[in-house]
Amino acid sequence: MSRLIQARFSLSRFSSVASSRNVRFLSTESNKTDEPFKVEEAETVNMPPLPTEKLLVLGGNGFVGSHVCKEALDRSLTVASLSRTGRSSIQDSWANSVIWHQGNLFSTDSWKDALKGVTSVISCVGGFGSNSHMYKINGTANINAIRAASEEGVKRFVYISAADFGVVNYVLQGYYEGKRAAETELLTRYPYGGIILRPGFIYGTRRVGSMKVPLGVVGSPLEMILQRAKPLSQIPLVGPLFTPPVNVTAVAKVAVRAATDPVFPPGVIDVHGIIRYSQQRSPVDVVQLFLLKRETGRIRVFENDHILKRCSSF
């Protein structure tokens, strides 16, 4: 990096001569135009590289988790994933850029090394089954992860939870009680860096073995309709059933932004908030679009990773 030590601007002096019809500005030096500024001395300074952010995705080989990993890689982050099975079966090229860890959230020693150097965590861990099993997977596993991350000094933690569905909560009691217990732990451990996303039905293209199931065929039209029916969600008991679905790419985008943007507000983000944030540009996106420089009469857009990462903290 070159640092400008001294610069002298050679400026022409102007004097004005008023006439009855117009005003002309004449140079005091004979026919000299403004000279470009001259650098008399420059010094090369070796600066250490800016620290890179490392994101750990819990459940990164699942439906939501894999989209989170891809979104984070698209933002030039270092991405690691932790799951019980380790490396994903996804054959897409981006999967080769993920650091895959195998571990069990119920045994901290089995995955403690995965937290080394991590600046933020996104948990996509969840599951169904008996009430006791659902509480264990959705609650206890995530609580263990939150505590371990906090003790390791991880700055931010994003938990992908679930929206309330009224009467459905009673049917899936263990599922929702586990989710809410994990949320309470997160807000206690991370009052300023904990973000909870509560999407409803998440749609997208799911892989079932070698088959791809396009859930967007149903989810996308429903999202458009139910977004405009927000008042219906306030109806007692049945209102939550009008919660709109949300695209998995929107959830991934907001999750990564929440994990890496220090000005992203902590707390609970409902499905309408997820949709709204997914349609906004993050500060990094804004900087990337508006870092402009005038050169030879034209505007050029610069995409300097180091500048972007530094500006993203504003």
UniProtKB/TrEMBL annotation:
Give the protein's recorded name.
Answer: NAD(P)-binding domain-containing protein
Q: Name one GO cellular component term.
A: mitochondrion
The residue ranges of the NAD(P)-binding domain are 59-202
Give any GO molecular function from the UniProt entry. Answer: protein-containing complex binding
